Amino acid sequence: MKFTSKTLWIAAAVLTLTAGATLAASQAAPPTAQKKKTATHLVLPPAPKALLPEALSGWTAPKPAEKLTDAAQVDSTNTAALKEYGFTDAELAEYKRGGETMSLRAVRFQDASGAFGAYSLYRQNGWPKEQIGSGATSNKNRVLFWVGNILVEANFSHIGPMSAAELRELAAKLPQPGENKAMAPPILLDLPQAALDPRTTHYAEGPAGYTGAGGVLPPELVGFDKGAEAVTANYSLRSGVATLTIVDYPTPQMAQAQEARIRAYVKAGKQAQPAWPKPLQDSDLASLEVRRSGPLVILVSGDAIPEESHKLIESVYYSSSVTTIPVSHSDEVRKTGQLLFGIAELIGIGSLTAIILGLSFGWFRVLWRVAHGKPASSVYETEFIRLNLRD
Fold first, then answer.
1. pLDDT tens, residue by residue, 36-87
2. Strands (E), 18-57
3. Total-model pTM
4. Do residues 118 and 148 touch, judged by C-beta distance below 8 A?
5. pLDDT higher than 80, residue 185
6. Which of 161, 181, 201 is the C-terminal boundary of a domain?
Protein backbone atom coordinates (compact mmCIF):
# COMPACT_ATOMS: atom_id res chain seq x y z
CA MET A 1 0.00 0.00 0.00
CA LYS A 2 1.40 3.34 -1.01
CA PHE A 3 1.18 6.39 1.25
CA THR A 4 1.01 9.69 -0.53
CA SER A 5 1.84 12.98 1.06
CA LYS A 6 -1.86 13.83 1.03
CA THR A 7 -2.69 10.67 3.01
CA LEU A 8 -0.02 11.41 5.58
CA TRP A 9 -1.31 14.93 6.06
CA ILE A 10 -4.86 13.62 6.60
CA ALA A 11 -3.62 11.04 9.16
CA ALA A 12 -1.65 13.69 11.04
CA ALA A 13 -4.71 15.95 11.15
CA VAL A 14 -6.87 13.13 12.53
CA LEU A 15 -4.32 12.30 15.25
CA THR A 16 -4.06 15.96 16.22
CA LEU A 17 -7.83 16.31 16.49
CA THR A 18 -8.09 13.11 18.55
CA ALA A 19 -5.40 14.21 21.00
CA GLY A 20 -6.99 17.62 21.35
CA ALA A 21 -10.41 16.08 22.05
CA THR A 22 -8.95 13.77 24.65
CA LEU A 23 -7.17 16.67 26.40
CA ALA A 24 -10.30 18.81 26.36
CA ALA A 25 -12.38 15.97 27.76
CA SER A 26 -9.89 15.41 30.56
CA GLN A 27 -9.91 19.10 31.43
CA ALA A 28 -13.69 19.37 31.27
CA ALA A 29 -14.30 16.26 33.35
CA PRO A 30 -14.87 16.94 37.03
CA PRO A 31 -11.97 15.98 39.30
CA THR A 32 -12.20 12.59 40.95
CA ALA A 33 -13.61 12.90 44.46
CA GLN A 34 -10.88 12.48 46.99
CA LYS A 35 -11.28 9.98 49.75
CA LYS A 36 -12.65 11.65 52.81
CA LYS A 37 -10.26 11.75 55.72
CA THR A 38 -11.51 10.30 58.97
CA ALA A 39 -11.77 13.00 61.62
CA THR A 40 -9.92 12.37 64.88
CA HIS A 41 -12.23 12.71 67.87
CA LEU A 42 -10.57 13.84 71.09
CA VAL A 43 -12.25 12.65 74.27
CA LEU A 44 -11.84 15.46 76.78
CA PRO A 45 -12.38 14.97 80.50
CA PRO A 46 -15.72 16.25 81.77
CA ALA A 47 -15.74 19.86 82.86
CA PRO A 48 -15.69 20.27 86.64
CA LYS A 49 -19.06 20.92 88.16
CA ALA A 50 -19.85 24.42 89.41
CA LEU A 51 -19.10 25.00 93.07
CA LEU A 52 -21.26 27.97 94.01
CA PRO A 53 -24.99 28.36 93.22
CA GLU A 54 -26.63 31.50 91.85
CA ALA A 55 -29.02 31.66 94.81
CA LEU A 56 -29.01 30.18 98.31
CA SER A 57 -31.62 30.61 101.09
CA GLY A 58 -32.66 34.04 99.86
CA TRP A 59 -29.10 35.07 99.00
CA THR A 60 -28.72 36.02 95.34
CA ALA A 61 -25.60 36.76 93.31
CA PRO A 62 -25.89 39.85 91.08
CA LYS A 63 -23.34 38.35 88.68
CA PRO A 64 -21.99 34.84 87.96
CA ALA A 65 -19.26 33.42 90.16
CA GLU A 66 -15.70 34.18 89.10
CA LYS A 67 -13.87 31.01 88.11
CA LEU A 68 -10.15 30.82 88.84
CA THR A 69 -7.53 28.26 87.88
CA ASP A 70 -4.49 30.15 89.20
CA ALA A 71 -3.72 29.63 92.88
CA ALA A 72 -2.03 33.04 93.02
CA GLN A 73 -5.36 34.71 92.20
CA VAL A 74 -7.03 32.82 95.03
CA ASP A 75 -4.44 33.61 97.71
CA SER A 76 -1.20 35.32 96.78
CA THR A 77 0.21 34.78 100.28
CA ASN A 78 -0.30 31.02 100.46
CA THR A 79 0.07 30.16 96.76
CA ALA A 80 2.82 27.59 97.35
CA ALA A 81 0.86 25.88 100.12
CA LEU A 82 -2.29 25.63 97.97
CA LYS A 83 -0.25 23.99 95.21
CA GLU A 84 1.25 21.53 97.72
CA TYR A 85 -2.25 20.52 98.76
CA GLY A 86 -3.23 19.82 95.14
CA PHE A 87 -5.16 22.95 94.13
CA THR A 88 -7.21 22.55 90.94
CA ASP A 89 -9.66 25.48 90.68
CA ALA A 90 -11.76 27.91 92.69
CA GLU A 91 -14.85 30.11 92.51
CA LEU A 92 -15.53 33.50 94.10
CA ALA A 93 -19.01 34.97 94.43
CA GLU A 94 -20.72 37.89 96.16
CA TYR A 95 -24.30 37.53 97.44
CA LYS A 96 -26.86 40.00 98.67
CA ARG A 97 -30.01 39.66 100.73
CA GLY A 98 -31.79 42.83 101.77
CA GLY A 99 -29.11 45.13 103.10
CA GLU A 100 -26.69 42.31 104.02
CA THR A 101 -23.83 40.81 102.01
CA MET A 102 -22.06 37.45 101.99
CA SER A 103 -18.91 36.55 100.08
CA LEU A 104 -18.03 32.92 99.36
CA ARG A 105 -14.74 31.43 98.26
CA ALA A 106 -14.81 27.76 97.28
CA VAL A 107 -11.46 26.09 96.56
CA ARG A 108 -11.27 22.62 95.04
CA PHE A 109 -8.37 20.21 95.49
CA GLN A 110 -7.45 16.86 94.00
CA ASP A 111 -8.62 14.94 97.07
CA ALA A 112 -9.97 15.36 100.59
CA SER A 113 -6.45 15.35 102.09
CA GLY A 114 -5.72 18.60 100.28
CA ALA A 115 -8.98 20.19 101.41
CA PHE A 116 -8.36 19.24 105.04
CA GLY A 117 -4.75 20.41 104.83
CA ALA A 118 -5.80 23.83 103.52
CA TYR A 119 -8.52 23.99 106.18
CA SER A 120 -5.96 23.31 108.92
CA LEU A 121 -3.69 25.95 107.37
CA TYR A 122 -6.29 28.73 107.49
CA ARG A 123 -7.85 27.73 110.81
CA GLN A 124 -6.17 29.29 113.80
CA ASN A 125 -5.77 27.47 117.11
CA GLY A 126 -8.61 28.16 119.49
CA TRP A 127 -11.29 29.05 116.93
CA PRO A 128 -14.62 27.57 118.05
CA LYS A 129 -15.94 24.47 116.34
CA GLU A 130 -19.02 24.54 114.09
CA GLN A 131 -21.22 21.73 112.78
CA ILE A 132 -20.90 22.20 109.02
CA GLY A 133 -19.66 19.70 106.43
CA SER A 134 -16.80 17.43 107.48
CA GLY A 135 -15.30 20.08 109.75
CA ALA A 136 -15.88 23.76 110.42
CA THR A 137 -14.75 26.67 112.54
CA SER A 138 -15.55 30.36 112.81
CA ASN A 139 -14.00 33.64 113.85
CA LYS A 140 -16.53 36.42 114.29
CA ASN A 141 -18.14 36.94 110.85
CA ARG A 142 -15.82 34.49 109.12
CA VAL A 143 -16.77 30.81 108.74
CA LEU A 144 -14.47 28.14 107.36
CA PHE A 145 -15.49 24.56 106.52
CA TRP A 146 -14.48 21.68 104.29
CA VAL A 147 -16.40 18.81 102.76
CA GLY A 148 -15.02 16.21 100.35
CA ASN A 149 -12.24 17.84 98.34
CA ILE A 150 -13.63 21.39 98.66
CA LEU A 151 -12.75 24.15 101.14
CA VAL A 152 -15.24 26.99 101.60
CA GLU A 153 -14.69 30.34 103.29
CA ALA A 154 -17.71 32.54 104.01
CA ASN A 155 -17.58 36.15 105.18
CA PHE A 156 -20.84 37.73 106.38
CA SER A 157 -21.58 41.37 106.90
CA HIS A 158 -23.68 40.15 109.82
CA ILE A 159 -23.84 36.66 111.35
CA GLY A 160 -27.40 35.57 112.00
CA PRO A 161 -28.93 32.61 113.88
CA MET A 162 -29.55 30.81 110.57
CA SER A 163 -26.12 31.40 109.02
CA ALA A 164 -24.80 27.97 110.00
CA ALA A 165 -27.93 26.25 108.66
CA GLU A 166 -27.57 28.12 105.36
CA LEU A 167 -23.98 26.98 105.01
CA ARG A 168 -24.98 23.40 105.83
CA GLU A 169 -27.41 23.63 102.93
CA LEU A 170 -24.55 24.80 100.72
CA ALA A 171 -22.30 21.96 101.93
CA ALA A 172 -24.97 19.41 100.97
CA LYS A 173 -25.10 20.77 97.41
CA LEU A 174 -21.37 20.79 96.73
CA PRO A 175 -20.13 18.18 94.22
CA GLN A 176 -18.45 15.20 95.83
CA PRO A 177 -15.32 13.41 94.56
CA GLY A 178 -14.99 9.69 93.95
CA GLU A 179 -14.59 7.32 96.88
CA ASN A 180 -10.83 7.09 96.44
CA LYS A 181 -10.52 10.89 96.74
CA ALA A 182 -12.97 11.44 99.58
CA MET A 183 -10.84 10.00 102.40
CA ALA A 184 -9.25 12.23 105.01
CA PRO A 185 -5.47 11.86 105.52
CA PRO A 186 -4.80 8.40 107.06
CA ILE A 187 -2.06 9.89 109.23
CA LEU A 188 -4.76 11.48 111.40
CA LEU A 189 -5.59 7.99 112.69
CA ASP A 190 -2.11 7.84 114.26
CA LEU A 191 -2.93 10.70 116.64
CA PRO A 192 -3.83 9.48 120.17
CA GLN A 193 -7.31 10.69 121.05
CA ALA A 194 -6.90 11.08 124.81
CA ALA A 195 -6.37 14.76 125.77
CA LEU A 196 -6.24 15.77 122.09
CA ASP A 197 -7.39 19.28 121.16
CA PRO A 198 -8.81 18.77 117.64
CA ARG A 199 -8.86 22.53 116.98
CA THR A 200 -5.04 22.50 116.93
CA THR A 201 -4.55 19.75 114.37
CA HIS A 202 -2.53 20.84 111.33
CA TYR A 203 -1.72 18.64 108.35
CA ALA A 204 1.02 19.39 105.81
CA GLU A 205 2.15 17.84 102.54
CA GLY A 206 4.97 20.29 101.86
CA PRO A 207 7.27 22.89 103.46
CA ALA A 208 5.04 25.90 102.72
CA GLY A 209 1.99 24.39 104.40
CA TYR A 210 4.07 23.11 107.30
CA THR A 211 5.71 26.48 107.94
CA GLY A 212 2.44 28.37 107.49
CA ALA A 213 0.78 26.22 110.14
CA GLY A 214 3.59 26.82 112.66
CA GLY A 215 5.55 23.59 112.34
CA VAL A 216 7.88 22.64 115.18
CA LEU A 217 10.83 21.50 113.02
CA PRO A 218 12.58 23.27 110.15
CA PRO A 219 10.80 22.12 106.98
CA GLU A 220 14.05 21.01 105.33
CA LEU A 221 14.60 18.61 108.23
CA VAL A 222 11.20 16.96 107.83
CA GLY A 223 12.00 15.60 104.37
CA PHE A 224 8.99 16.57 102.29
CA ASP A 225 11.16 16.07 99.20
CA LYS A 226 11.19 12.36 100.10
CA GLY A 227 7.41 12.10 100.02
CA ALA A 228 6.80 12.73 103.72
CA GLU A 229 3.61 14.14 105.22
CA ALA A 230 3.26 15.59 108.71
CA VAL A 231 0.58 16.27 111.30
CA THR A 232 0.92 18.42 114.40
CA ALA A 233 -1.51 18.66 117.33
CA ASN A 234 -1.62 19.93 120.90
CA TYR A 235 -2.50 17.82 123.95
CA SER A 236 -3.82 19.27 127.18
CA LEU A 237 -1.98 17.22 129.79
CA ARG A 238 -2.20 17.73 133.54
CA SER A 239 1.24 19.35 133.80
CA GLY A 240 0.89 21.52 130.69
CA VAL A 241 0.38 21.57 126.95
CA ALA A 242 2.40 19.13 124.86
CA THR A 243 2.79 19.34 121.07
CA LEU A 244 2.96 16.08 119.17
CA THR A 245 4.49 15.96 115.68
CA ILE A 246 4.14 12.84 113.55
CA VAL A 247 5.94 12.52 110.22
CA ASP A 248 5.00 9.64 107.93
CA TYR A 249 7.59 8.44 105.38
CA PRO A 250 7.09 6.07 102.44
CA THR A 251 9.37 3.39 103.96
CA PRO A 252 10.75 2.51 107.41
CA GLN A 253 14.28 2.88 106.00
CA MET A 254 13.63 6.54 105.15
CA ALA A 255 12.13 7.06 108.58
CA GLN A 256 15.18 5.54 110.25
CA ALA A 257 17.53 7.89 108.40
CA GLN A 258 15.42 10.97 109.16
CA GLU A 259 15.03 9.96 112.80
CA ALA A 260 18.80 10.07 113.21
CA ARG A 261 18.95 13.56 111.67
CA ILE A 262 16.08 14.89 113.80
CA ARG A 263 17.50 13.36 116.96
CA ALA A 264 20.91 14.94 116.30
CA TYR A 265 19.25 18.29 115.55
CA VAL A 266 17.30 18.29 118.81
CA LYS A 267 20.36 17.20 120.78
CA ALA A 268 22.44 20.05 119.30
CA GLY A 269 20.32 22.65 121.11
CA LYS A 270 21.52 26.21 120.62
CA GLN A 271 24.33 25.06 118.33
CA ALA A 272 21.85 23.49 115.90
CA GLN A 273 21.88 24.63 112.27
CA PRO A 274 19.50 26.01 111.21
CA ALA A 275 18.50 27.65 114.48
CA TRP A 276 15.62 26.16 116.44
CA PRO A 277 12.19 27.48 115.42
CA LYS A 278 10.23 29.30 118.11
CA PRO A 279 8.07 26.27 119.10
CA LEU A 280 11.24 24.37 119.99
CA GLN A 281 12.77 27.34 121.77
CA ASP A 282 9.65 27.68 123.95
CA SER A 283 9.67 24.00 124.91
CA ASP A 284 10.95 22.39 128.09
CA LEU A 285 14.28 20.86 127.09
CA ALA A 286 13.79 17.93 129.45
CA SER A 287 10.51 17.03 127.74
CA LEU A 288 11.86 16.91 124.19
CA GLU A 289 11.89 13.34 122.90
CA VAL A 290 12.17 11.63 119.50
CA ARG A 291 11.27 8.05 118.61
CA ARG A 292 10.36 5.97 115.59
CA SER A 293 7.67 3.36 114.93
CA GLY A 294 7.84 1.76 111.50
CA PRO A 295 7.66 4.56 108.90
CA LEU A 296 6.60 7.10 111.55
CA VAL A 297 8.95 9.53 113.28
CA ILE A 298 7.42 11.13 116.37
CA LEU A 299 8.54 14.24 118.24
CA VAL A 300 7.03 15.56 121.46
CA SER A 301 7.65 19.14 122.61
CA GLY A 302 5.95 21.70 124.82
CA ASP A 303 5.70 22.39 128.54
CA ALA A 304 4.50 19.06 129.97
CA ILE A 305 6.71 17.23 132.45
CA PRO A 306 9.01 14.52 131.01
CA GLU A 307 6.95 11.65 132.46
CA GLU A 308 3.75 12.77 130.72
CA SER A 309 5.55 13.67 127.50
CA HIS A 310 7.15 10.23 127.41
CA LYS A 311 3.79 8.55 128.01
CA LEU A 312 2.26 10.56 125.17
CA ILE A 313 4.98 9.73 122.65
CA GLU A 314 4.88 6.05 123.61
CA SER A 315 1.16 5.94 122.84
CA VAL A 316 1.91 6.42 119.12
CA TYR A 317 2.61 3.21 117.25
CA TYR A 318 2.47 2.04 113.67
CA SER A 319 0.03 -0.73 112.85
CA SER A 320 0.36 -2.29 109.40
CA SER A 321 -2.62 -4.02 107.82
CA VAL A 322 -2.08 -7.34 106.08
CA THR A 323 -3.73 -7.70 102.68
CA THR A 324 -4.00 -10.67 100.38
CA ILE A 325 -1.60 -10.41 97.45
CA PRO A 326 -3.03 -11.78 94.19
CA VAL A 327 -1.19 -14.84 92.89
CA SER A 328 0.56 -14.20 89.58
CA HIS A 329 0.69 -16.55 86.59
CA SER A 330 4.26 -17.46 87.48
CA ASP A 331 2.89 -19.72 90.24
CA GLU A 332 1.05 -22.01 87.82
CA VAL A 333 3.97 -24.46 87.74
CA ARG A 334 3.97 -24.64 91.52
CA LYS A 335 0.22 -25.24 91.51
CA THR A 336 0.57 -28.06 88.98
CA GLY A 337 3.29 -29.71 91.08
CA GLN A 338 1.11 -29.50 94.17
CA LEU A 339 -1.78 -31.08 92.25
CA LEU A 340 0.34 -34.00 91.05
CA PHE A 341 1.75 -34.52 94.52
CA GLY A 342 -1.78 -34.57 95.92
CA ILE A 343 -2.85 -37.18 93.38
CA ALA A 344 0.16 -39.38 94.22
CA GLU A 345 -0.57 -38.99 97.92
CA LEU A 346 -4.19 -40.00 97.36
CA ILE A 347 -3.12 -43.08 95.40
CA GLY A 348 -0.73 -44.07 98.17
CA ILE A 349 -3.42 -43.71 100.81
CA GLY A 350 -5.83 -45.78 98.70
CA SER A 351 -3.26 -48.54 98.20
CA LEU A 352 -2.44 -48.69 101.91
CA THR A 353 -6.13 -48.86 102.74
CA ALA A 354 -6.63 -51.75 100.29
CA ILE A 355 -3.72 -53.68 101.85
CA ILE A 356 -5.08 -53.17 105.36
CA LEU A 357 -8.56 -54.28 104.35
CA GLY A 358 -7.14 -57.35 102.52
CA LEU A 359 -5.16 -58.43 105.56
CA SER A 360 -8.13 -57.83 107.83
CA PHE A 361 -10.50 -59.98 105.75
CA GLY A 362 -7.77 -62.66 105.36
CA TRP A 363 -7.27 -63.05 109.10
CA PHE A 364 -11.01 -63.11 109.62
CA ARG A 365 -11.29 -66.02 107.17
CA VAL A 366 -8.45 -67.86 108.93
CA LEU A 367 -10.14 -67.52 112.30
CA TRP A 368 -13.44 -68.68 110.86
CA ARG A 369 -11.90 -71.84 109.35
CA VAL A 370 -9.99 -72.70 112.51
CA ALA A 371 -13.15 -72.26 114.58
CA HIS A 372 -14.95 -74.77 112.34
CA GLY A 373 -12.17 -77.40 112.61
CA LYS A 374 -10.69 -76.77 109.24
CA PRO A 375 -7.09 -76.00 108.36
CA ALA A 376 -6.16 -72.36 108.40
CA SER A 377 -5.59 -72.47 104.67
CA SER A 378 -7.63 -74.26 102.07
CA VAL A 379 -4.40 -75.26 100.34
CA TYR A 380 -4.16 -78.28 102.64
CA GLU A 381 -7.61 -79.62 101.70
CA THR A 382 -7.75 -82.25 98.96
CA GLU A 383 -10.94 -81.78 97.13
CA PHE A 384 -11.80 -84.00 94.14
CA ILE A 385 -14.86 -85.60 92.57
CA ARG A 386 -15.62 -89.18 93.67
CA LEU A 387 -17.45 -91.73 91.56
CA ASN A 388 -19.23 -94.45 93.57
CA LEU A 389 -18.82 -97.35 91.10
CA ARG A 390 -19.66 -100.12 93.61
CA ASP A 391 -23.31 -99.40 93.42
1. 555 555 555 556 678 999 999 999 999 999 999 999 999 999 999 999 999 9
2. 55-56
3. 0.70
4. no
5. yes
6. 181
**Backbone angles phi and psi of 240, in degrees to 5:** 155, -175
Question: Residues 248, 296: contact at Cβ < 8 Å?
Answer: yes
Q: What is the pLDDT of residues 206-238, one digit of tens each?
A: 999 999 999 999 999 999 999 999 999 999 999
Reduced to 3 states, what is the DSSP secondary structure of residue 90?
Answer: strand
Say yes or no: 175 and 193 in one domain. no
CA dist list (Å): 258 to 25, 223, 317, 381 = 86, 7, 17, 94
Number of domains forming the structure of the chain: 3
* DSSP assignment string, 132-181: STTEEEEETTEEEEEETTEEEEEEESS--TTHHHHHHHHHHHS----GGG
Same domain, 172 and 102: yes
Task: List, in order, residues 6 or more apart from 320 with CB less than 8 Å away.
Answer: 294
- The closest alpha carbon to 16, from 5, 28, 24, 26, belongs to 24
The residues facing 137 across adjacent strands are 129, 144
Q: pLDDT tens across 331-371, in order?
A: 555 667 778 888 888 898 888 888 887 777 677 777 767 77
